[in-house]
């Protein structure tokens, strides 16, 4: 009975830490996708007079984030990654945003 109690205590401590690491890993993947989209935006602007809309470039598909582009003009854009599904537990870090000037928000999540 003591062994079961000890295993239960260890599991109660370890499981939340594990969940936190999983969320951070998924957030890292979303950040990588945003940086890839930024490269696509800059490449698109080299060949055109403005930044791309969602229809101009392919948006990444993820089970944990929805990606979008907003505030698109000849000189600006904002890339967004909004958590979905089980990743919404990472509420302090959604949405992740990145713009043409490399402004990243929320800063503590990058």
Automatic annotation (TrEMBL):
Gene3D superfamilies: Glycoprotein, Type 4 Pilin. InterPro entries: PilE-like (IPR031982), Pilin-like (IPR045584). It comes from the Bacteria. GO terms for biological process: type IV pilus assembly. This is Type IV pilin protein. It comes from Bowmanella dokdonensis.
């Amino acid at each position: 009975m003591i062994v079961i109690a000890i295993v239960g205590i260890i599991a109660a401590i370890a499981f939340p830490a594990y969940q936190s690491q999983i969320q951070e890993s998924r957030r890292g993947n979303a950040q990588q996708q945003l940086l890839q989209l930024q490269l696509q935006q800059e490449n698109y602007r080299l060949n055109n007079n403005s930044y791309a809309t969602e229809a101009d470039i392919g948006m990444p598909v993820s089970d944990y984030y929805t990606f979008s582009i907003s505030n698109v003009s000849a000189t600006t854009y904002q890339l967004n990654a909004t958590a979905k599904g089980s990743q919404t537990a990472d509420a302090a870090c959604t949405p992740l945003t990145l713009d043409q000037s490399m402004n990243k928000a929320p800063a503590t999540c990058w």
